[in-house]
Amino acid sequence: MALAVFVNKALTCGMDRQLVIEGSARRHPFRNHARRVVLAHRRERDNSDWKLFAMSFSAFFVCFTTFIF
Questions:
Q1: Residue 60 or 6, more confident
Q2: How far apart (Å, rounded) are the C-alpha atoms in residues 69 and 59?
Q3: What is the DSSP string of 14-66?
Q4: What is the spatial distance between Cα 34 and Cα 41, in angstroms, rounded to a whole number?
Q5: Rounded Cα distance, 52 and 35, in Å
């Protein structure tokens, strides 16, 4: 029984830390700048979802019709 407690403590010792960073660390100026740049770049090419959908649909259609005929 004591061995099981020791093994459990050894396996879960790294799980005591917080998973979400709180405080001033997440408000670092570089992180704020990087987030804005990524969001601005994402808005410029927002139609990529439609292009991916059209390409996937076309590829599926071609493969499906090739297997049938």
A1: 60
A2: 16
A3: GGGS-SS--SGGGG-HHHHHHHHHHHHHHHHTTTHHHHHHHHHHHHHHHHHHH
A4: 11
A5: 24
Query: What's the CA gap between 27 and 31, in Å, rounded?
Result: 7
Residue 13 is classified by DSSP as: G
Using the predicted structure, report yes or no on whether residue 31 has a pLDDT greater than 80: no
Please provide the size of the chain in residues: 69
Type of residue at 20: V
The C-alpha atoms of residue 66 and residue 5 are separated, in whole angstroms, by 60
CA dihedral of residues 45, 51, 56, 58 (deg, nearest 10)? -170
Both structure tokens of 31: 């992180």
Q: Tell me if the pTM is above 0.85.
A: no
